[in-house]
Amino acid sequence: MALVAGPAASDRLTHAVAAIGGRLTRYGWHDPIAADAHDVLALDLDGADHDIVTDLFARIVPPATPVVVAFDADWIDLAAGLMGPDVQLLCAPTRLDCLAALVIAAGQSDQPARVRSDDAARVAVLESEITRIAGLLQRLARDDAPKDHVASSAMGFAARPAETHVTADDIRAVIRARRLRERFFADGLLEDPAWDMLLDLFAAALEGRSVSVSSLCIAAAVAPTTALRWIGRMVDAGLFVRHADPQDRRRVFIALSPRADDAMHGYVAAVRSAGLSIA
To answer: Is-contact 2 27, C-beta < 8 A?
Structure first.
């Protein structure tokens, strides 16, 4: 495994590599990186600046090997530029987060990781949850219907009715109602990041407003690393699309895909026609 980090970087990734018995080659920010010579490439952005990170990303995109990127919350929008199927983005990760990410990355590179027995059970739980998320989104992305219809065949409605009569204020009210639940139930008990992000992006589309990755992570109402994982899955599922900020191409905006936008309008129409409320 290769670690690219500055002298001020924490030891979170170093400890994780040691925990899985990996051999580590360390690079500085400006060192030539032989990414294809390593099974996994780990980046720790702690102590970096924008120019360093921009140059580093340019040198490893597209990644030749699985990549794990650790960073603090200030780097979310810039780090999102590396988002991809073989890239794990870890915002303010714990050592356990880093360990789980490296185990998964080692599996992607066909190099099984050897986890210490005291960490194995916790990593197994994390991997199980990630697998569950992937399965849910694969089912969500399944396109059994005709291409101009993205709706439940059981309901029998077109994906985009001629008149939906929904406003951004309607959707923002739903989001506020969902957040009120957190006053009465334990943290994490009712997490639903995929739907929360769909609602936020739908409202933004109705407002004609762009949404940054950091803003969408807040809307997800879960830990940033979890939100980033869900954003990546939703992009892979064809429900979210990424586009660069025209004012700063290092920053990434997220929007509903046309298919997801049609599905949201169809959902609202179905709910309204059934005399129900958007939830």
So the answer is: yes
Q: Are 109 and 86 in contact (CB under 8 A)?
A: no
Rg over alpha carbons for the chain, rounded to the nearest Å, is 20
Residue 273 and residue 55: Cα distance in Å, rounded?
A: 52
Based on the fold, state whether residues 106 and 7 are members of the same structural domain: yes
At 64, the pLDDT band (50, 70, 90 cuts) reads confident
CA angle 146, 150, 154 (to 5 degrees): 90
Decide: 91 and 101 in contact? Cβ < 8 Å. Answer: no
> Do both 78 and 174 map to the same domain?
no
Please state the separation of Cα 4 from the chain's center in Å.
22
* Closest to 220 in 3D by CA, of 231, 234, 210: 231
**What is the total count of domains within the chain?**
2
> Nearest 10 degrees: CA dihedral of 97, 95, 87, 256?
40
Provide the CATH number for the domain around residue 60. Answer: 3.40.50.2300
Question: Residue 41 class from Cβ within 10 Å (0-12 exposed, 13-18 middle, 19+ buried)?
Answer: buried
Q: What is the dihedral of CA 151, 161, 261, 263, to 10 degrees?
A: -10
Residue range of the domain that includes 65: 2-110
**CATH number of the domain residue 228 falls in:** 1.10.10.10
CA separation for the pair 243, 83 (Å, rounded): 12
Instruction: Tell me, yes or no, whether 128 lies in a domain.
Output: no
pLDDT-derived band at 161, boundaries 50, 70, 90: low
Q: Looking at residue 37, what is its pLDDT?
A: 77
CA distance 99 to 127: 11
67-76, 108-117, 121-130, 148-157 — most confident range: 67-76
Q: What is residue 229's three-state secondary structure?
A: helix
The DSSP bridge pattern shows strands 248-256 and 2-5 to be unpaired
**Do the domain assignments include residue 125?**
no
Q: Contact, 35 vs 42, CB < 8 A? A: no
